[in-house]
Amino acid sequence: MGVIQELDTQLTNMIAAGEVVERPMGIVKELVENAIDAQATRIDITVQQGGIQSIQIVDNGAGMDGEDATKAFQRHATSKIKKTQDLWSIKTLGFRGEALPSIASVSNVVLETNNSVQSTRVEIQYGQLISAKPFPCNQGTMIQVSGLFLKTPARLKHLKSVPYENSLISDVVQKFALSHPEIAFSLTSDGKQSFKTSGSNDLLEVVFQLYGKDIAKNSIVIDDGDADYKIKGICVHPQFTRATRNAISVFLNGRMVRPYRIQKAITDSYSNYIPNDRYPIVVLDITMDSQLVDVNVHPSKWEVRLSKEQQLEYLLRELIPSAIGNHIQAPLVNMERVVKEKIEVQSLFEEPIVKPLVIKEETKEPVYVADEKITQVVEKIETIIPIEIKEEVIRPLPKKEFPRLRIVGQMHGKYILCEGDEGLYIVDQHAAQERVHYEQFLNEMENTKHTMTSCLVPHMLHTSNDLVRRVDEINDAVVSLGIVFEVFGDDSLIVRELPIWLHDIEVEVFLQDLIDIFKNDTEISKSKIRKHEIATMACHHSIRFNRILNETEMNEVITQLAECEQPYHCPHGRPTFICIDAGRLEKEFYR
Ligand code: ADP
Ligand code: MG
Question: How far is the CA of 356 from the centre of ligand 1 (A)?
Fold first, then answer.
């Protein structure tokens, strides 16, 4: 007799649960998606102990009748698709009919639902239907999940700390709130409300709730697109950055996804303005014909395939830089903000994934609280900041001209101090010259890139065997610089000729730097290489940070900077100058 047998339903559901509901955050995601698909306008999420103890989602959506309330827990039971063709144009967030049976196979589930005709309560324990009966409840659906993974200890062990699970849940709910500003969301963890949105369909208001007033005020509204893609959302001024990619939220047809290439197009678009290790805050809602996107890639639905992805990438690479380029100016120094950020940096290694805005009891002042710290500061939290958005917050940012500056002196051999109409300007002399040289070298390279000189002695670079094997790929990426690497043994490369624009630098250090980029990064764009190398050269050529300058030299720095195309940031993305506005100074002196 054969040894193969068909697995029973409970076992197949548990196997599916491994993919669909890996951790509490995944459950929250699936259940909120169901509520959105049910046309809810209000969704309240309550979790205990990072969702490990319990998760409750209440919506005011369509609800289900008595029959569907139990059918919903059968594998591959869905109201969202019916035939094969439907799979190629999915308009709902769910379609696989897997979430509810998977969740119910690894937890206790209570469902109460009312479709305005029938009102029902269903209870299921680890895949066993305990009861299903009429029960009075409000229009919509309440689903409660508890005792998660108690019967799957390996999975339970895999969960991290309560604050960590909480931060993932908070992050996913925030993303829902950003992708659906028309729905009122609230999230409560262990009895404390983390945040809520009003459902007024105003994205800036949600941004204000989640990221605070400064960010809402510095949001550049995007509403553009082409024949295939419609792009709406906000790009926050590059003065505000994050340590992780987490604040880049991209939604495709209202679905939260992690599209690597789209994210990269966004970070690349900001790369002229922000340091390498920082990331922008962006919320983009991209809509397209549902036939252009395949969402049936993975059970957790985080991935999608776009049939015209490159077109979308190009569109973003054009749209975002022009939107932010129009709003770049010298960052205004907000003294209070600087102090607060300092406190955070000291207390955390990495920037937290999410930062709810809360009000401190003692001072009544809004502060950002790092998620990991929530448990330690909850006692201090009194109220969630009320939803209140002033006109000024939504006013579009004006395009800024380079300010007229008059030099008043130099400080510590590092900064050039100037006065201008708005206040006191402090110019970082090194960063300013880096920008000037960067643009000069870029021009020079464009004009002379094919003029080469032979090296007297070839430059030899020791590197790894792995990089030697990637020599063709490396040469392909650096071809626009006019540099060609040749293989020299198992772990060395040599360069025999150099373009003339590469002058007065330590060539070997420069070449080694160039090779090192490939060590750390497997996928490198040509523009990134070019930018990096020219920036390195510009840095080597610029006046040191500790040098006393005379007035003529200072004037030259400022005049040249004013002529730059992008004068506000050095090529590494740091500001070239900042401004302390006059009004602020007056306040400091109690005038
Ligand atoms: P899917 O969302 O892929 O269809 P699920 O297992 O998540 O699969 O849900 C199964 C079905 O249960 C859904 O198709 C829907 O008809 C119903 N359902 C689930 N949650 C809700 C809800 N909150 N409100 C109304 N109907 C729901
Ligand atoms: Mg679903």
Answer: 30
